[in-house]
Amino acid sequence: MERVRPEIANDCDVLVIGGGIVGLSTAYAITRAAPGTHVTVLEKETGPARHQTGRNSGVIHSGIYYRPGSLKARFAVRGAAEMVKFCAEYGIAHAVTGKLIVATDRAELPRLHALVQRGRENGIPVRELGVAQIAEYEPEVRGLAAIHVGTTGVCDFADVARQLAEASGAEIRYGAQVVRVDRRPGVGVAVLTGAGDVVRGRVLVNCAGLHCDEIAHLTGDAPDVRIVPFRGEYYELARPSLVRGLVYPVPDPAFPFLGVHLTRGIDGGVHIGPNAVPALAREGYDWGTIRPRELGATLAWPGSWRIARRHWRYGAGELRRSLSKAAFAEAVRRLLPPVTEEDLIPTAAGVRAQAVLRDGTLADDFLIKEGPRAVHVLNAPSPAATASLPIGREIARRALTALED
What we know:
Structural class: alpha+beta
């Protein structure tokens, strides 16, 4: 591959790798903050939002779960309001539905009360509900107590991503998988694609999601995390009339996963899920998709084994629900007693790009790292779609600062 030389003109000012909602929001934010800045987005798929963005439950999260002061808390609360406004401005289907978080066991009540406090610290309106009040919102749902979060909503994030791509004015190149990166800190970056094209830019922004740690390594930066992919499997509810809106269990604070929940989407259908099981490939959307090199890289990371030792009981339960529809239905009945196995229709799965530290800690906040002429987004799972507009502005700020160096 040809080395970057000062006399060679760049193809763009900022080169974004990844055409999911975070990469496209970054391009959108850059062109608005600095009109005239030339942005090129490289996406290996034939269109935008083919992975995390287009395979989630479509929930606009309120921000209630996240540690006050964290990027997740700040950006989710701000991003939820901005996402609703963006959808309204561009005519994208959306609804502010509110949601219930329901305690089904007495042991969950202290965690539910802690969520009330956290919501208030994050500036989120929360209403506490008793048994009778739960039935007013969701007649078929059973629980000991619940909270209602009014700012939660739903939309189609793939439609949002497509609109961001169009409105950004950036050059979007699809079918452009990055296979090599050559960086000269004082000059810029050159990227070689699988098609043999060389694209040069002054600054690189890595929003590659499931492959972000690999892109960081190609750039010459050595992140202290690895992406460990977790598949989330969903069912569609054959009797959507059982659920009016959004219903969640009380999450376990030891995990970044929210548990199996009920989501009435913008299309009126109700999705149930996801669980969380290890994927055998970065894009392992079923048990039959195995990529030995990627699986080997996951197994070689010390953090993977430390997660397994620390949380094997939780993992065993998730695995059981993955392999047994009866076990999955049993878990759902804790919230929605009328559900039967026959009510559950398998639908598309998603894969969460979860950053894991060497000691086995799951990164619990958005993680953005900088290197010479590069900005790497190394952890941006849920609620990244909700928070994508403020995340994009933060990445844009860092990229534009790097342009000035």
